Amino acid sequence: MPFRLLVPLGLLCALLPLHHGAPGPGGTAPDPAHYRERVKAMFYHAYDSYLENAFPYDELRPLTCDGHDTWGSFSLTLIDALDTLLILGNVSEFQRVVEVLQDNVDFDIDVNASVFETNIRVVGGLLSAHLLSKKAGVEVEAGWPCSGPLLRMAEEAARKLLPAFQTPTGMPYGTVNLLHGVNPGETPVTCTAGIGTFIVEFATLSSLTGDPVFEDVARVALMRLWESRSDIGLVGNHIDVLTGKWVAQDSGIGAGVDSYFEYLVKGAILLQDKKLMAMFLEYNKAIRNYTRFDDWYLWVQMYKGTVSMPVFQSLEAYWPGLQSLIGDIDNAMRTFLNYYTVWKQFGGLPEFYNIPQGYTVEKREGYPLRPELIESAMYLYRATGDPTLLELGRDAVESIEKISKVECGFATIKDLRDHKLDNRMESFFLAETVKYLYLLFDPTNFIHNNGSTFDAVITPYGECILGAGGYIFNTEAHPIDPAALHCCQRLKEEQWEVEDLMREFYSLKRNRSRFQKKTMSSGPWQPPAGPGTSSSENEDEARDKRPTKQKIPLLSCPSQPFTSKLALLGQVFLDSS
């Protein structure tokens, strides 16, 4: 395709005042300790403002110093901020909020809720907080992490979403009424991300509760999207969940599609699922072939590959971080630096940026304090240690404080050109933006654990290891401990081992009985066998059809393969064999 991008430098935003910790004339990197404290102060300014002015509503309105419900009426900001409290070291407030949520949050309400947002923010936030409860000093109940009040809340919320998956295709509706299920007149058109962003939370929930329904519906939805891709390997961004027909055929890595790709990679790492990773790598080839130009990613027609929108969306800034998770560091850094130039131009990322023109797109000039570029910086800094990534963190802190800080929190930037503000502070500001900033500047945080420390936990199913690191962030930045998925269920292989022991026991008992009878009669009774086969041959054939057993001690978690250990450093090297 004879299309090449020419990106002008553009007008750089006015230089922010030089603070202590910012690079000086010698080009020294930002001081992590200084910015760590700045980020912590940002969090408490926003968090305290929410508690004082907006709780129990979902979100804070920082310009009018009050609150409003946005995604359902769950005290959403409190759920979203809970694991951030622990990452910042505030165990006492974590413990208090756990009690508040148990007493105040009710999912049995007549509210139309986004299936996608409820999953990533509420189910994900509660699961993460549940798994971190013991580390936060909460007195957990017997059987934890296989039981607990936050786990029961997460399960209750997830069950409210299950009616959305009852479609002919298995792909969910976008909205569900928490009391009545899917409304009769509900639109069947759902975005791709709204279909493919469940495997992390739902597989975790199935593993902890023992109920496979959650992981099952998430996997079906993933597979239906995979089967719906075009002949050139691309997916659109909206599909009819009743017919499986694409309604919006623009293909890219941004809004409406983004977290579908993210969850193929993170689901593959979390579940050690080679099929999910193979699916992503096939998509990655098509994305490179048809949407990448000069390390930018455009929107193209999903069937033809022709450019439909030569724009960069701020939601696409997660992509370099995702590339780092599969070990594609060089490409990730090049794309990250492209996105960073946009930040430098405006002091934030506009929702849409016209790449050939080098400027914002009309009515898409805002920046709601999104985390995606900071998220990528955190991942890439863990992988490379490149000080440029700390500079992005510094710029983010300075820009957000200078432009969006108000008396009652931090306000969405309505227009990056003139810095007009909007009366909203999204819950993801405390769940993601502040969290990724803090982790960027805090290299010794427990989230970055390399496996050198861990906790041994006794569950009803034996001993398992938690807190060793390798946390998988859901798309709302709620960390999930992958080892927890092995704590609360007997593996199929272990079930076979138990059955073998039982069979061996009864075989010995039966043989002893037969020997005794043989001395008194012509021989023991034999069960009927199939034509031309003996009973022992039938047993051998059935045994051969079982899954190949892995030698796993019954009272310990299976050791993670080498590839997943490398994920602790921000990347995974795939076994090409």
TrEMBL record:
<comment type="similarity">
    <text>Belongs to the glycosyl hydrolase 47 family.</text>
</comment>
<keyword id="KW-0732">Signal</keyword>
<dbReference type="InterPro" id="IPR012341">
    <property type="entry name" value="6hp_glycosidase-like_sf"/>
</dbReference>
<dbReference type="InterPro" id="IPR036026">
    <property type="entry name" value="Seven-hairpin_glycosidases"/>
</dbReference>
<dbReference type="InterPro" id="IPR044674">
    <property type="entry name" value="EDEM1/2/3"/>
</dbReference>
<keyword id="KW-0256">Endoplasmic reticulum</keyword>
<protein>
    <recommendedName>
        <fullName>alpha-1,2-Mannosidase</fullName>
        <ecNumber>3.2.1.-</ecNumber>
    </recommendedName>
</protein>
<keyword id="KW-0326">Glycosidase</keyword>
<feature type="signal peptide">
    <location>
        <begin position="1"/>
        <end position="21"/>
    </location>
</feature>
<keyword id="KW-0325">Glycoprotein</keyword>
<keyword id="KW-0378">Hydrolase</keyword>
<dbReference type="InterPro" id="IPR001382">
    <property type="entry name" value="Glyco_hydro_47"/>
</dbReference>
<feature type="region of interest" description="Disordered">
    <location>
        <begin position="517"/>
        <end position="557"/>
    </location>
</feature>
<dbReference type="Pfam" id="PF01532">
    <property type="entry name" value="Glyco_hydro_47"/>
</dbReference>
<keyword id="KW-0834">Unfolded protein response</keyword>
